[in-house]
UniProtKB/TrEMBL annotation, chains A, B:
Organism: Pararobbsia alpina
Keyword Oxidoreductase: yes
Sorted UniProt keywords: Carbohydrate metabolism, NADP, Oxidoreductase
Name by which UniProt lists this protein: D-erythronate dehydrogenase
PANTHER family: ADP-L-GLYCERO-D-MANNO-HEPTOSE-6-EPIMERASE (PTHR43103:SF3), NUCLEOSIDE-DIPHOSPHATE-SUGAR EPIMERASE (PTHR43103)
GO terms assigned for molecular function: oxidoreductase activity
Pfam families attached to this UniProt entry: Epimerase (PF01370)
Domain NAD-dependent epimerase/dehydratase: 3-207
Keyword Oxidoreductase attributed: yes
Gene3D superfamilies in the record: NAD(P)-binding Rossmann-like Domain (3.40.50.720), UDP-galactose 4-epimerase, domain 1 (3.90.25.10)
E.C. number(s) listed in UniProt: 1.1.1.410
Amino acid sequence: MKIVVTGAAGFLGKRLIRALLERGSMTDSAGERRPIEHIAAFDVVPLEGIDDARVQVSTGDLADPAHLERLVDAGTHSVFHLAAVVSGQAEQDFDLGMRVNFDATRALLERLRALGQRAKFVMTSSVAVFGGALPACVDDSQVWAPQSSYGTEKALADLLLADYSRRGFVDGRSLRMPTIVVRPGKPNRAASSFASGIIREPLNGEPAVCPVDPRTVLWLMSPLRAIDNLIHGHELPAAQLSAGRVINMPGLSITVADMVASLRRIAGDEVAARIAFTPDPAIERIVNSWPGNFSARYARSLGFVHDDGFDSVIRAFIADASTVAA
Amino acid sequence: MKIVVTGAAGFLGKRLIRALLERGSMTDSAGERRPIEHIAAFDVVPLEGIDDARVQVSTGDLADPAHLERLVDAGTHSVFHLAAVVSGQAEQDFDLGMRVNFDATRALLERLRALGQRAKFVMTSSVAVFGGALPACVDDSQVWAPQSSYGTEKALADLLLADYSRRGFVDGRSLRMPTIVVRPGKPNRAASSFASGIIREPLNGEPAVCPVDPRTVLWLMSPLRAIDNLIHGHELPAAQLSAGRVINMPGLSITVADMVASLRRIAGDEVAARIAFTPDPAIERIVNSWPGNFSARYARSLGFVHDDGFDSVIRAFIADASTVAA
């Protein structure tokens, strides 16, 4: 089978491709287990660091129909669509965010519809679709009320994926991801970038700025669990998706203060002292509009997993950093 | 001020234009009351039957940028966007529904954004955005889960309107309308068409088919209250819209059996006997996915109105039919 991965050069994309190569086979939409013969790894920058004959790297513009036709073809059984403009950037550049986060997703869905093979389409959505007056623990029946263009674009894509699946154009699954922590590499323009930065930078001997109040409650998932869930979300039979194709993932609800306490426990006072708390109202406004806890009842019933505690998340990051290039 | 009305030749469009002409003035987004100098009445078929120098009739394609530029110009203070492909047709022709119900709405919002005047933008949405497992009475916090492409397209437009408003591109208000009953004229391809047909046709001496079970609960609003609410929705100051721009309207929750009983009370047994109950599974599937009752708490707090009972809805239809061309 051929699997397309967009956002392949990102830290999740790269880890997903490694996990797929290691598994060696996946289940198609007819429920048949097939060997993975090709992985088309697409991103705006070329994927590097994976040397496997099954992986074809390409770059380009997803909204360009000619490129899309080459990338997604009649042999494509599955697409993992991870490519996105992050929240801070989508807020700054509305047109770019709409084009990448919505129009490109629509173009991908249209391409799969035209091919007529009901391919599996696994996408990452975001808790940024929620906002406004929210209960302490958000249930699966909670209305979407995005307070950012990123959240709006993810909600638009979710609706489209659900209708394309209902009509049988694709076999879609959208996973509403918590904030993924600890991301490796450099800070990015996501409003949530600090959530990884306050762990990663101090561990690397560098200073970090926390732009939100330590009492801020975050909803987190580690990269390891994210990959587990992406693969699980792909493998679930369509018949089990009784409550729809858009699934709020389980996660870890934790305050920033408890994250720092965890870092202090594992790495010591000197490391934790590298975090400076300097409020940034623009980031606080976006981050505080995101819920800090979810019931994720539907996802749990489907067997999606979450991290047991933040200490193990930090330990996994340290272990990962020592074995994987960022 | 100039007001653009799309879907102007429809029964709501026509009644809205008459109501606007009668009022003579409306409030712009700065809160200033202005005389209505121009109403640009757009539809795919020309508006007929309104003879007033303030009304300019045009036809064309809303998704065509050249047409849109002529229709919506720097003098446009407000747009009432009522044009839509109805639910049954949008389900049959996915591309047409997306183009009219979503792409044309987006093009309109983009045009207003480009003009940079934060024009008022009042749109009709639909209870078809809801579906799946629902409580007996749907609250404003209920998640959207459309079970039709029409519902999906209306939810997409709602999300866009909300973000364009949040960013200050437009001053938008989307009114989630109940099924409008009694519509004058002929049956259309809306799945809800029968809800008017079972009252209208018997009163006109014609047979009617009811494709759903008499126990089906519908959520209704009369054309009179719909016009009241469209104008109220336009006039509300933006500062009052504390819980967002997408508003579930209040309505009348009633079973089909009670609608028929009301018709019998007002028009007699002979008239009510003109209704034949012949189930249509395709229509039942769509109609049964729509909730039959809403709290509409937010809308009520904002002063939106609903019908007091179905007898008065029928009486208003009879009075309207004798004074207004369909």
